[in-house]
């Protein structure tokens, strides 16, 4: 397997808005300035899918999905009804782009927090079409498998035994498209769990990746963001916690979801 990196266009970055850099004006948020948004593909209330004005990657179509008008919102803070609406809309946008033959692959992901690799605080996801790159070439079916804590009604949830990066990753698998709302509920609880329970609340950033499965399903994978371990940075070797820790995490996440679902 050859390593064909995607090309980052540095010249585009100099004008790109930034929320986390000290030398940037944090009072200006392009996603709050809804009246001046352009190149909109689809819209449902406050949810807006549009072209990314700062395409930093060569040979791609980069799009942004603004989740909410709440500048400090997140999946973990939306109402249950709103989060379901967001996930249904986002999935439709991803599938629409994924059907376009001009892309070799299409990826869909979300950055949250100062250590996530994102540039703007305002809640958004990204859907990117790669014209010449397989965005999933390093991803394997067992990355979506693990210590199962829920498997019912077309949704399977587990703590990954073969993580993409490590150490603890949550997989929320949509196996039946009629179960999107239940899938959305688990994703929302996953965001809350990562930010408040896992690592005793020390995690302030995460990535949420969405992967097409070979069985036509979708895996939503949460990866906590701290400093990346050197084995992954230098060798692309992921690490996983021991079996006892994975079992404990699966039990705690299931208990959290059960309690969380009662108060919604």
Descriptive account of the structure:
It comes from Lactobacillus acidophilus (strain ATCC 700396 / NCK56 / N2 / NCFM). This is Putative di-tripeptide transporter. InterPro entries: DUF4931 (IPR046322), DUF4931_C (IPR049285), GalT_short (IPR012361), HIT-like_sf (IPR036265). Residues 8-133, 139-249 form the DUF4931 domain. The protein has helices spanning 10-13, 80-98, 180-196, 230-235, 243-262, and strands spanning 40-44, 47-51, 60-66, 105-112, 124-130, 146-152, 155-160, 169-174, 206-212, 218-224. Strand 7 (155-160) and strand 8 (169-174) form a beta hairpin. The chain is α+β, with helices and mostly antiparallel strands and 264 residues long. It has a ten-stranded antiparallel β-sheet. The relative contact order is 0.13. Helix 3 packs across helix 5. It folds into two domains: 10-130, HIT family, subunit A, CATH 3.30.428.10; 141-259, HIT family, subunit A (2-Layer Sandwich), CATH 3.30.428.10. The mean pLDDT is 91. The longest helix has 20 residues, at 243-262. Helices cover 25% and strands 25% of the residues.
């Amino acid at each position: 397997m050859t390593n064909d990196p995607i090309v980052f266009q540095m010249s585009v970055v100099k004008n790109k808005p930034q929320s986390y850099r000290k030398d940037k004006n944090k009072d200006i948020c392009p996603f709050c300035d809804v009246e001046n948004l352009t190149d909109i593909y689809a819209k449902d209330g406050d949810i807006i899918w549009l072209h990314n004005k700062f395409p930093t990657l060569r040979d791609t179509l980069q799009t942004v999905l603004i989740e909410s008008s709440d500048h400090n919102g997140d999946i973990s803070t939306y109402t249950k009804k709103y989060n379901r609406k967001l996930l249904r809309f986002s999935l439709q946008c991803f599938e629409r782009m994924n059907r376009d033959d001009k892309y070799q692959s299409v990826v869909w992901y979300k950055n949250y927090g100062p250590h996530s690799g994102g540039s703007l605080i305002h809640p958004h996801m990204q859907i990117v079409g790669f014209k010449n790159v397989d965005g999933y070439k390093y991803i394997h079916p067992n990355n979506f498998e693990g210590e199962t804590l829920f498997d019912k009604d077309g949704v399977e949830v587990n703590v990954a035994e073969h993580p993409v990066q490590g150490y603890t990753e949550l997989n929320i698998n949509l196996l039946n498209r009629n179960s999107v709302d239940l899938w959305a509920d688990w994703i929302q609880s996953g965001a809350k769990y990562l930010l408040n329970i896992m690592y005793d609340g020390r995690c302030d950033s995460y990535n949420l990746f969405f992967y097409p499965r070979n069985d036509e399903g979708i895996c939503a994978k949460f990866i906590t963001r701290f400093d990346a371990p050197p084995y992954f940075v230098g060798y692309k070797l992921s690490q996983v916690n021991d079996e006892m820790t994975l079992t404990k995490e699966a039990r705690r996440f299931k208990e959290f979801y059960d309690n969380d679902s009662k108060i919604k």
